[in-house]
Design goal:
84% helix
Length: 228
Amino acid sequence: MEKKQEYLDQYMNRTHQLGRLASVLTLAMLLGAPFLIGAYLGAMPDLAAAARGFVSVGLVWTVSSVVEFLVYTPMLGAGGSYLAFITGNLINMKIPCAINARDMVKAKSGTRENEIISTLTIATSSLVTILVLAVGVALLTPLRPVLQSPRLAPAFANVVPALFGAMGYRYYRKNLRLAAVPLIVMSLLFIFAPGLTGSTSMMILPSGAIAIGLAWMDYRRHRKEGRA
């Protein structure tokens, strides 16, 4: 048992070391690429104008990024989080894959099992994504008439809602009231304040707060009934 715990501690320390190094290198490449391209082409951007543009939208996305980090990291664990945030496409690909794999093996969030499963799942998802993108780029020209067909346009426009609707239902049916109340409240909010539709990431906070509040009320009620 002690050897197992020692091995797991070494695994986590190594994961954080590699994850931090990869994150720093990725951030440096993402920020450095535009400046290198600009220096090579002799077309450096106006940094003052870029800063003003960042301030106008960057503050919103900064808050959204912090919210996503706080929400997704407990679900994915350390290794999965490093891989997911570096490779991107969390909502459409990484989160559904990790949750589905976790449910298949019946692992609980926050456990060592979930840590390993999430890391393997997201790594596999990233490799498959790279492979699919490579094949897609190679076949882009031959398949362009099919992909741009008006008959397929509605399907492509609803891929994400269909994916999350199918995955979400398995959780919604466990407690329909807990799922329906935040859905109704947020739907009404978007209807009467359509400008908020562009800030869906930030709206996770109030909708999550409603769900957590309802779950806490149910917990307290069941606890009182158990004591009675």
